[in-house]
Design a protein that fits this description.
Blueprint: H1 5-25, E1 45-46, H2 48-69, H3 76-99, E2 105-106, H4 107-131, H5 142-167, H6 191-207, H7 210-237
Helix pairs in contact: 1-4, 1-7, 2-3, 2-4, 3-4, 3-5, 5-6, 6-7
Domain 3-oxo-5-alpha-steroid 4-dehydrogenase C-terminal: 104-253
Subcellular location: Endoplasmic reticulum membrane; Microsome membrane
Membrane topology: Multi-pass membrane protein
Length: 253
């Protein structure tokens, strides 16, 4: 497949603008799902496990389909980076979605998330397979590449461990909220979000590309504010909430 460079640049800039627009639009209120969900009577919802599975799987399938239909010679760097991207979405699709105990999702939120995952999966896959240039000396910048991969997998570990802590706060059937403790939750209220943000900025460093950077900026703009609103939720609900705990960045914010 030919590299559609103009399309890649337009989509990347569009994702950045969408992320910044979301940041501005939701500076006072959060997207209506989870603990911040406010539904009007006719609103339709989807069970959390099904919603997460359906909205995440396009980001896994899109690059895999591009990979299997690509007729270009296999380059180690491209497939290693694309495999890194797919690793995240395999975990979110087949592990996280099956274990989550979250509340039902509004149908509109699930559809919008699924559309974005499809678009982003295509963008990252198309860029890495058809636009990125990795010659036989691609490992010459191995320090930057390795730094990015280390950040990605450290962030992923933080994200998975934090999700585990949140998932085990309540027993099956319980609906009350509790103060999360352990891991990075000792320092921030949004440890799971911090982990995911670190993941995608690590991916951006490893690929050193506009598409990956655009996704990292989008992630920060979308889930960064959610960490802040979670922090405010905990502070209002629990009088004994740790006063030194920050929202997203330990000791800072």
């Amino acid at each position: 497949m030919h590299c559609y460079e103009d399309l890649v640049n337009c989509l990347s800039c569009g994702i950045i603008l969408i992320g910044l627009g979301h940041l501005v639009h939701h500076r006072k209120t959060q997207t209506s799902y989870g603990r911040h969900m406010v539904l009007s009577p006719p609103a339709r919802t989807v069970p959390a496990r099904l919603a997460w599975f359906l909205q995440e799987i396009p980001a896994l399938l899109a690059p895999l389909l591009l990979m299997f239909t690509s007729h270009k010679p296999s380059i180690t760097g491209k497939h290693l980076l694309l495999g890194t991207f797919c690793t995240h979405y395999f975990q979110r699709t087949f592990v996280y979605s099956l274990l989550t105990r979250g509340r039902p999702f509004p149908l509109g939120v699930m559809v919008a998330a699924g559309f974005f995952c499809t678009l982003n999966g295509f963008l990252q896959g198309h860029y890495l397979l058809h636009c990125a240039h990795f010659d036989e000396e691609w490992s010459a910048d191995y320090r930057l590449f390795l730094l990015g991969l280390v950040l990605f997998y450290v962030g992923m570990a933080i994200n998975i461990h934090s999700d585990y802590i949140l998932r085990n706060l309540r027993k099956p059937g319980e609906v009350s909220y509790k103060i999360p403790t352990g891991g990075l939750f000792e320092y921030v209220s949004g440890a799971n979000y911090l982990g995911e943000i670190v993941e995608w900025f690590g991916f951006a460093v490893a690929t050193w590309s506009l598409p990956a950077l655009s996704f990292a900026v989008f992630s920060l703009s979308f889930i960064g504010p959610r960490a802040y609103y979670h922090h405010r939720f905990y502070q209002k609900k629990f009088k004994d909430y740790p006063k030194l705990r920050k929202a997203l960045i330990p000791f800072i914010f």
